[in-house]
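hey m, so remember when u said the tokens were messed up on ur end? i reran from scratch. heres the input so u can diff it against urs
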Amino acid sequence: MTMHTDLIALIKSRRSVRSFQLDQPVSPKHVTQILEAGIWAPTGTNQQEIRFAVIQKYDLLEAFALYKHIKSPLVIVLFADMEAFYSSYPKSVRRQRHKRPLPHVDSGLAMMNMMLVAESLGLKSVPLNTSRFLFYETQKGSGLWKRLLKQFAIRTRTSCLGIRFFDHFVRQLDIDTNRFLPTGALAIGHSDTQPKTEGARYGGNPVQRSELEHYVLGRYA
């Protein structure tokens, strides 16, 4: 097999896993290789603004699980350093709305690199959506008034009334929540189950892909 066909086979065989062997840590060497893959992903106008928080400490993994309900021996949270992102942009460019999603695009590129390298090392992973709007409820409320107050807290990002936002977790890492924007996360480890492929469905959709032309809106050669 050529390297090209090996890579295509790896892409097709990768599956997201949500159940990990918690007693089997990811080696420091493998962590480094995964991070190296992340930093070599392309970034918009070469801003290189993506940063990583590598979490393997038990109590922090437990705290993270409150937000995403997943437990793994390794979580890598991705951030955009907004000072680095804007460092070469004049104010006129910063105000352009189409530039604002770039850190999230760059984060996705880094995550895909990292997941493929993890897969090549015999590890499994799952990409996770994180943002400043991610929250969990510290207490369950009842009654119409409490529900309305919670909706107000969620809409205004007010950490009160039993709502705790992801900023709280980031501050536990001693990371400046004003400068570093959470853009995603990866849970990584050794799989606790064998992912199904044939006939498997997730979110109502089959895991397997349809024929290529199903996804192509048009060819304009």
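this time it looks ok to me. Helices lie at 3-13, 28-39, 58-68, 82-85, 91-94, 102-120, 144-156, 166-172. if urs says something different then somethings off w ur setup not the seq
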